[in-house]
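Same chain as my last thread, 239 residues:
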Amino acid sequence: MYFYLFVTLFVVWMVFDAVRRKAPLYWLVVIVLFAPLGTFVYFAVVKLRQWNPPGVLKRASGGPSIEALRQQLDETPSVANKLALADALEARDDCNLSAPLYEDVLRGDPDNRQALHGLGRSEMGRGRFNAAAEHLDRLLRIDNAYRDYAAALDYADALWHNDQRADTIEVMEGLARVSTRINHRVALAHYLTEYGDVARAREVLADGLSSYETSPDFVKKRDQTWAQRAEKMLKGLPA
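reply #2:
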C-alpha cells in the first residue's frame, strides 16, 4: 500500500514539475501514460539536471562541463565553441544564458540551423512561445527534416503552447505524411486527443501500428518501445 502511495505522489510531483517548467507535452504523456517507468525516466532525464552544481554537470554525451566550455570559448571565441556552450546551457534549462549566445551567432549567420533550433528551444524554456515558433518556422523553411524532425516536433509544441492548436495539428499531420516513424504518429495522436479529435487519433495510431508490422526488422527493433506506447495509448482512448 505504501509503495502505491509513494508512486502516486511521485507521479503527481513530476506532473507538477513538468507543468511548472513548461516541458514539451510529450513528457506529460511519458509521465502519466507510462507510469511509473516513464515518471522515473522524466525524473532522471529532466529533473535531476537542476541538482547538478555548475562546473560538475556533464553533458548527456559525457562531454566537457559548463565551466570547461566557458573557458574554451574565452580562449577561442569561435562560432563552434559558442554553440557548444549555448547547447550545454540550454540542455540544463539555463535559457536566459543560452539565448543571447544563439542570438550572437545568428547576427553573423542568420541561417545557422543549430542556432535557430537552439534559440527556438531557449525561447520555449523562457515561456516566449510566439518567438520560439518564429525561429523554428524559419529553421524548417531552411531544413524541414533538421535533426531527424526534432525541430518540427519542437515547432509543433511551441505552436500548441502559443494557443495555435489547429496549426499544431497541421504541422503534425504534415510530419506524419513525410515520416514513417511511429513516434511521430504517437505525437500526432496525442495532440489530436487533446484537441478533441479522438476518432482521428485512433485512426492515426492504428495506421502507425499497421505500418510498423510491415517494417524491416531493424526498424521494428529501433521503434519497438514506441510501438508498445502506441498500443497502450490506443487501448486507453475513450470509445
